[in-house]
Predict the 3D structure of the following.
Amino acid sequence: MTTAIPSAERIRQPLVFGGLPEAEGFARVPITPRDRVHFRVDRELPLAEFRADLPDAVTVSFDAGEGLYRVDGACGQGPVLADWIRAWCAGRGITTVGLRAEADVRRRAPRDLPPAFLDDLCRHYGPVSLKRLQRNMSTIRLHLPDPDDLAQQVAEWILKAVGQYDETKGVPFGAFLATQLSKWVHDLGRAAHGRTAADTEHKQQKAIAAFVAEHQRRPSEKELAAYMGQSVATLRRNSQTVATLNGLRNLQSLDGAPDAAEVLIPDSHEAPDEIMGEAEQTLLSHALTAACAPDPAARPEQRAGQPNVLGWATWYLTTWGGVTKTQLSAELGTSVRNMNVHADRVERALKTQLAELVD
């Protein structure tokens, strides 16, 4: 004979953060609509001055990892704010990239929640999120090999979910966070290497995994093309894109310290001209890689604190790979303007590297 469990014991008790039940904490700071302007710039804005000049009740946030600025105002203000931002930046010689206004964006500011509530919520959902992400860990390690970087990224994702969570939908926050985490993991590849290349790799890997599960072996080129509903020529072209993507990931020198590696070159009086020509190419390649490496003085979450992979690809493939920026833009699924922003960063650093070589 089994003993029935009282219904009150079967119901999971609500989570309590900072003395507030989870639902009540979100209800205190409801999600609200606003107009938002997204944009990037060719060099970082003087944020203090920018905030001081913004119209009343308009706020700005900066995502250092993506180099993306977000300006929020009241509904209906989007087009006016976009024009104001263009004029403000132009007056200071700053070029905006991908500026666009988005209407009726529903968000909340995490900082508006009670501090103790937000602190306990992040402390609770951090380990929960890491456990949920175990199935995506092979992908995550390609972009975040350091456990500390992963922990920081998970904390940022939790805060991002807090900002987007709509408590009126009737879905618990934990369930909303779980669905978003997988999407944001996929976005890591898109942000680093371009939407088209990352999506192509993702589709190929899913198809290969499905074929292996069904046939217990890897597919041939023809079998994979048929499985994906593509021609062999299309599959080969897409496979080249994936190979390029993996090659860029394997540039270990971008994550290391290229300046610490000694480059040995022969004495020009004893070496033939062709060897010296190769040595000069080696030095130039070394300088380009060093110019794309993370700035050790920058924080890891800042754009300068991350390897400039897109800038390296733009310079290398258009200079030595025989590819135009238009072709590379289509290949990587990113705009030429975005490529130019990253390439300009390389140019500034490369000038310093080359000046040191000349000296």
